[in-house]
Amino acid sequence: MNVIPSRVKCRPAPLFAVDDMSEQQLLYDVYQFYSTKLVGELDIISYVCERGFNDDTIETFQLGYTNRMLCQLLKDSPSLRQERGRLKRLGLVNPSTGHELLNGCITLPVITSGRIVGGYGRRARPTIRAGSTVRPYHLLDESVLFNEDCLLNKPKEVLLCKSPLEAISVIQMGFEAVLGFVGNHDFTVAHANTLKQAGVKTVIVLFNLNEYFQLKLLTIATLLNATGIQCQCVNVAGFVDVNHILARFDNGKDIVHRLINHAEKVSGNGI
Q1: Residue 170 and residue 172: Cα distance in Å, rounded?
Q2: At how many degrees (to 10) do helices 211-226 and 189-197 cross?
Q3: pLDDT tens digits, residue range 5-57?
Q4: C-alpha closest to that of 170 among 215, 199, 206, 220
Q5: Which of 22, 36, 126, 224 could disulfide-pair with 229, CB 3.0 to 4.6 Å?
Q6: Does pTM top 0.90 for this prediction?
Q7: Which domains does the chain show, CATH number per domain?
């Protein structure tokens, strides 16, 4: 198993300086705070390493972990209590319960053009409390996809994954133009236009085609085709997603590469 390097272990905790703190600075401090909590969670580190993540990936995408310490810090520090209201407005604290949205999750910020526009969490413990959302998220802009900055390189072909963690796993395999849905798998006209403006010609979607994702795929294909972009699909049949393959097979990377190489063209009428 890979080990978090010393540079991550020594990362200083954010100061949460209250005076004139912008929302961007607050979001940055929160996700930096979460990142300092990952190093003590060996089972969580094992979880991400099983999915092909290495130390550089953890650092680059600012993976962290929540363990209720943030809300406790805000509660115990009178000077910081006013920030709880701002975190509620930003979607990181539940307005009704006061609980952290991403509590008990692997966390990562969603960053576009240097700005944090949301965040994603994945509960990774074997036991998940009934009623808990497995993949909570918050977005300041619902039209954002994870890793949109890869479009700045004007790729002709991009891969589209079900989640940020799956997208990171694919990036780890050597693919650079990889996007991921952050929350719901609702592909929109805005998404299609973003890809068109970036000069994308082909989108390869990585889905396990159960009934739910078949419907989602047809919507994606229809909207892409309407903008002149070809849609292809990698049917991850028999698996939850790419991470499921990587975590269970020693040759998981080879399996995923073969699947991507055999992607099939999709139209709004199906494969």
Answers
A1: 5
A2: 50
A3: 333 333 444 444 444 458 899 999 999 999 998 888 888 888 888 877 888 88
A4: 206
A5: 224
A6: no
A7: 6-139 (3.90.980.10), 148-266 (3.40.1360.10)
